[in-house]
Amino acid sequence: MTTVALDGTKLIILMIAGGAFALAGLWLMFRPKPEGGAAKLELFGAKFEASSAGLLVFLIGAAFMAVPIVVPERESPSRPSAGAGEVRRAEPEAGSGELVAALPLPRLAESTESEPNDTISSSNALAIGQTVRGRLASGNNDWFVFAVDPTRGERLRVTFRNLGGGCPNYDLLDARENRVGGVQVCTSEVSNSSGYVVESDRYYLRATSNTPTEYEIALDYEE
């Protein structure tokens, strides 16, 4: 038999009622008996002496008070908070009567670049599905390398975000170091997302800027 959970208010009411019954039972058991014999009480067709009735009432009260021990309290539903990469639900507008689902948010950067990585031979290794943050000095290069699995997707998507002004850009090179694409973003807090056909088992990405700036790179397969 499954025990049905009750909310906290109902459990408190049961405990208060149980306490009242228990006190009444104690009073019946220990009150002075009237002269001429013990007081009689008829309950559900059975006759009890006052002391017996008091014991019965006390046991009923004790049972009510023990309900919270065997019956779990029902938890109040709570709204989970939405973090990065999770689907948020916007607060409804006045009179809308419903929540509006928003799109998933971009992933946060899991790591930052590791210097020195200013040459192709010292490239930082990235993984598809990862987001990395970097910082560029004027005329400096940051190199990255990542492997591609053609069975996971036929197209690669590179998202490049300008975080600190200037005009950072990236060049995408294949395994033979031939340039296959690139983008420049000259507006702060703006990103560009570009797709490329997967034709190599690995790619190199070189980020550079004409002024000091910060950037983010996100890699993924196109659906």
Can you walk through the features of this model?
The protein is of the alpha+beta class and 223 residues long. The protein folds into 2 domains: 8-70; 111-221, Jelly Rolls. Helix content is 19%, strand content 33%. The protein has 3 helices and 14 strands. It has helices at 8-30, 50-65, 67-70, and strands spanning 40-43, 46-49, 89-90, 100-101, 111-112, 124-126, 131-136, 141-147, 155-162, 169-173, 179-184, 190-197, 202-208, 213-221. The strands form 4 sheets. The chain has a 5-stranded mixed sheet with strand order 5-7-14-9-12, with no helix packed on it. It has a 5-stranded mixed sheet with strand order 6-8-13-10-11, with no helix packed on it. The radius of gyration is 36 Å and the shape is rod-shaped. The two termini are 48 Å apart.
